[in-house]
């Protein structure tokens, strides 16, 4: 126990086995007792000691201390990624066009392999994907592209099947299989801050680089090799004169250019056309590696 006085030194004493304690040579006046023991809640007592008095403190019973346990529930990265994917799946420019592979969260949680395949599957079976494939097949038939398929309903059906197969293989390989094996993130991370020039450079660079699952920027092997692999597979069903390694590499380069153009649209146009988009601060996590940024800046200045 501890005795506290306003104008004198504090006194302490330890009780005996029976809980009794005493203090000697206590000056008269008011006092404050604090009785404490390990595992019990402290108790206090205030009194007033007169000159020559032997003060007997009333019986004090210590109660067992209440245990206070704090539990902090932190969602796993998988759960955080699931919620962020749900937001991405609601991203539809003009209200209907799927835009699932864009993240407006700069430090988004990495996707697991399961989530990468699930996201790719939702793109593949989205009704708009079927509609766009039908439009592509129609334009190809009108221009007589892939002429070996012929014309008429049969020719259109072959073009539709080939266009949809291109979408399926390109999405699965480039956005699910290789990103899972190489631990890369297949999404475009919206920048949204900085000068227009810096945002254009960022959009161009992210056609050939991507974030790894560890958050670091790296060469986008998944997209590049995925495009090459999908092009190689298309040689199995394209007409004979539309096959070959040359066309595969040519289409891959065209795909990189198309991705760069699409990224620029993402930075400056698509967000404005997307209703009910959550407001996320882009922050500073979308900065490019210094060497890549300097290289692109040099190329732009030489082009000027």
Descriptors:
single chain, 304 residues, alpha+beta, 8 helices, 8 strands, disordered C terminus
Itemize the secondary structure elements and their pairings.
Elements: E1 2-4, E2 11-12, E3 29-35, E4 43-49, H1 77-89, E5 102-103, H2 113-124, H3 127-142, H4 152-182, E6 188-189, H5 196-205, E7 209-211, E8 217-219, H6 221-234, H7 245-268, H8 290-303
Parallel strand pairs: 5-6
Antiparallel strand pairs: 1-2, 1-3, 3-4, 7-8
Helix pairs in contact: 2-4, 3-4, 4-6, 5-7, 5-8, 6-7
Q: If you had to describe this structure to a student in words, what would you say it looks like?
A:
This protein is of the alpha+beta class. The protein has helices spanning 77-89, 113-124, 127-142, 152-182, 196-205, 221-234, 245-268, 290-303; strands spanning 2-4, 11-12, 29-35, 43-49, 102-103, 188-189, 209-211, 217-219. The strands form three sheets. A four-stranded antiparallel β-sheet has the order 2-1-3-4, with no helix packed on it. Helix 3 (127-142) packs across helix 4 and helix 5 (196-205) packs across helix 8. The protein is rod-shaped. The N and C termini lie far apart (84 Å).
